[in-house]
Amino acid sequence: MTATRLKKGSRAGARKKRRLYFLLTSLLVLGLAVALVLNALKSSIRLFYDPTEVVEKGISPGQDFRIGGLVKTGSFKSREVGDIEVNTFKVTDGNKSVAVIYKGLLPDLFREGQGVVAEGAMNKNGVFVATQVLAKHDENYMPKDVVDSLKKRGEWKKYIASKDKDKGKAL
């Protein structure tokens, strides 16, 4: 009777080992699949930062990301170099500002004091070199990331107040 118990026990132990190996192999394959997907998406993921975060984090030159905020009043300059229009301006969140340079035509709705999101990377001189600039598309729209950033910094109420003041002048 004890011999039959040992046989049954060894079968159960073998089944447990097989299940354990299957579970470990499955986890390994799943982990590898997740790592491959994240690596493939790495180039298309762009992080969003506001100017204060850019200054405080000291983002390394060449790292692609998005910066958003308001175009600082009085900071916009445009000049032509050959056939290319070179635009410089500062993006601010009311706390810190980051200089931006963009070669090309800006969106029609680009103005000082308006919300903007720029994609690109920092250069070695601490200037954000934009590859694309996105401006708001109507009077009430501002990108969600910019709104969240302004609210976090306490600048949202000031922005709304300035917009209300501008509407009063237009009427």
Describe the structure in your own words:
The protein is α+β, with helices and mostly antiparallel strands and 171 residues long. The chain folds into two domains: 45 residues; 123 residues, Beta Barrel (OB fold (Dihydrolipoamide Acetyltransferase, E2P)), CATH 2.40.50.140. The protein has four helices and seven strands. Strands 2-4-5-7-6 form a five-stranded mixed β-barrel. The longest helix has 40 residues. The N and C termini lie far apart (100 Å).
List keywords for this structure.
single chain, 171 residues, alpha+beta, OB fold (Dihydrolipoamide Acetyltransferase, E2P), 2 domains, 5-stranded mixed barrel, 4 helices, 7 strands, 42% helix, elongated, disordered C terminus
Instruction: State the fourth-level CATH superfamily of the largest domain.
Output: Nucleic acid-binding proteins
Helical stretch count? 4
Gross CATH architecture of the largest domain? Beta Barrel
Residue share in helix: 40-55%
Tell the overall outline: elongated
How much of the sequence lies in strands comes to 25-35%
Low-confidence runs: 167-171
Radius of gyration: 27 Å
Give the CATH class of the largest domain: Mainly Beta
The CATH topology of the largest domain comes to OB fold (Dihydrolipoamide Acetyltransferase, E2P)
Total domain units: 2
